[in-house]
């Protein structure tokens, strides 16, 4: 799901085919197969000492694609707000703290808006068999066959606009989309993960611009007109409108740190770039997010697997500086 601030928010959703349909089916192990001990990697995934000031380095909203719906707000180095729903299996793949204090988030089987008191003030249930990953209206992308972009009016519950999106493999819907973002021009940028490209569309579904990027997970417009893309192939790339790579960060640029998956990247006001490192707890030494300068110097790294355990990282919205545009529109929709 991708979500944008203020009056118009955006979320992305997708559908997956069940294992019984063959999408993720795995051969059953023989009943007499020997039980192999689980190997534990004891090698450090990051140095013991990290730059920055840990939890106190930034104020932020945090969520991740973990086994449960968990979200946290950290201010001044301490958790000041939490949300958890262990009864559900939906993973959170996008969330935003809006200017009215509510949080809008996609959680695999729906999209919800909750107040700071955790009261649900709006909810969208995806159809049976679908999963969701991507203030008057919400824009969402629903993976499937066909995949659709939809503009839903929260007041009336009606779909004000929808159009189909091309996909690389209609039969494997899980890998079609994760995040999309609105631009200041009233268009939408979409990360076509299974097509290895990012595209910009108008409200009629017309493709206005595209660039080839391997397995893009998220895409964000920058103030300088360029596009920032995070790929789950462990790199982040800034692309000009002419398709030129003007800046790139790869896992090799951070020796001594094991980078498992880069899903999101945010360009900060000071020119630094905030990047997440999606990974399971492992041996507890991996960092969950880090900040690098334009010349790729590491200035902050977050590691919090114990006291508190924030879990895997997918969403990190910094609250100590602006990180999203306000009053964003999608064509005629406000």
Q: Name the CATH architecture.
A: 7 Propeller
Rounded to the nearest angstrom, the distance between the terminal CA atoms is: 19 Å
Helix/strand order: EEEEEEEEEEEEEEEEEEEEEEEEE
Approximate helicity band? under 10%
Number of domains: 1
**What coarse outline follows from CA principal-axis ratios?**
globular
CATH superfamily: YVTN repeat-like/Quinoprotein amine dehydrogenase
Give the strand line-up of the largest sheet: 9-1-10-11-12
Number of contiguous helices: 0
By CATH, the topology is Methylamine Dehydrogenase, Chain H
Overall number of strands: 25
Any idea what the radius of gyration is?
19 Å
* CATH top level assignment: Mainly Beta
Structural class of the secondary elements? mainly beta
Measured by DSSP, the beta-strand proportion falls in: 35-45%
3D architecture notes:
With 334 residues, the chain is an all-beta fold. The chain has a single domain (8-18, 42-318), classed as 7 Propeller (Methylamine Dehydrogenase, Chain H), CATH 2.130.10. The chain is 0% helix and 40% strand. It is built from no helices and 25 strands. It has strands at residues 8-15, 60-63, 69-75, 78-85, 94-97, 103-106, 110-114, 120-125, 130-131, 137-142, 147-153, 159-165, 177-182, 188-192, 197-201, 207-212, 216-221, 227-231, 235-239, 245-250, 265-267, 273-276, 289-292, 298-302, 315-318. The strands form six sheets. It has a five-stranded mixed β-sheet, with no helix packed on it. A four-stranded antiparallel β-sheet has the order 4-3-2-25, with no helix packed on it. A hairpin with a 5-residue loop joins strand 2 (60-63) and strand 3 (69-75). The radius of gyration is 19 Å and the shape is globular. Mean pLDDT is 84; it is low at 1-7, 12-31 and 128-135.
